Fold:
Amino acid sequence: MPKREYMVLQYEQSGENINPGPLDPQVREAMIVKYAYLVKRIAGKMAAKLPSSVMLDELISAGCMGLIDAVDKYDPQKEVNLQTYAEYRIRGAILDELRSMDWYSRSMRKKIREIEKAVATVEAREGRPAEDREIAGELGINLDQYYRHLTDIHGTAILSLDEFIRNQDNETMSQKRFQDGVRSLDDPSRNFARQELKQVVAKAITGLSEKEQLVISLYYHDELTLNEIGKVLSLTESRICQIHTMALIKLKNKLKTFYE
Structure:
């Protein structure tokens, strides 16, 4: 085994025997090289779900910073391996970079708020998940216009379930997600809050239409692209984008009460 690989293995397996102090430069470099493949893999998978205007190189650049941060802050004494920690850091860094682009224009934000309000009004009145035609009617537009709104929102914004799920400090799950997860191993209150959030999200998802639930499951659980989901459901990618956008807006409405 090459010397650098051996040094990395020793560091990752050191546990409570690790010596405090700055990381040896050779070990640091070797760890970054060893897990560099994660950046390209994660960035590529995320890019496949984003508009074509997003440059893969930008995601890779952000992911590299996340990997370096992971290596510098990794603690072998925690009950998690470096690869898992690095994956969280890389994904979080890429999401933060996407948010920094702030693709929401003022008019787009207004459009989203109007749809959110229409969904809430219809569901409060009907006592069930709002249907597209009802939301369009509440907005005072026809279905074609409504679908165009959803397509515009999806095409110009980074919409992700991660945006709507925040921890008890009102941070998105990508922000300090890993540290909070590690702390929860020894913190019963955090563990309880995490379990409660899971229940709230699960209940919110059951309030979506069957098709919306299926799209959410295929996109987030099975990690299919919107194009692949369209082929599975025999629908166009544009229609899947609309369903995905509407599902997230509905979930955001349902999760608001949990945080408030």
The radius of gyration is 21 Å.
